[in-house]
Structures are given as structure tokens and as C-alpha cells.
Amino acid sequence: MSKTIAQSDVSAHNTVDTGLYIIIDGGVYDMTGFIDEHPGGAKILKRVGGKDASKQFWKYHNEGVLKKYQERLKIGNLEEKAKL
Asked: How is residue 6 annotated by DSSP?
């Protein structure tokens, strides 16, 4: 079973020092150890750290990229808020 992560926890992980988490389509990814490997450079990952990066991700990547790194980088799913 996948770990559920609160939005506040993702938001708190917004730098390399605190851990760099991003959200892609509801999945939470820890990019801290990947930042130096990212072909697009560290700057873009630092800019979206702690946030939903879905729009930026899909602009430059396809589903194959997500599948390639998902097992290594995905740490859980974003907690869904109750809809009233």
C-alpha cells in the first residue's frame, strides 16, 4: 500500500536541505537525490519544490519518463481533502 502524504508535508519539503518533494498527478516524488542527475538542471526542480509540478512536468516529458523513474522516486500519494 502506498503512503499518503499531506499537502503541508509536501510544502515543507521545498529545498534540498529539507528534502525536495514535488507532486505529479497526485503522486508525491522525492527529487532530493535526483537533482544533480536531472537533464534539465537543478534550477527547474528547485523552482517547483514543495508544489504541484504536473503542468511543468507534462510540458517537457512523456509518460515513459514518469514510468522510468516512478519506482525510484515516488514516495506516496497526496492526501485527498474531503469534499463538502
From this structure: -
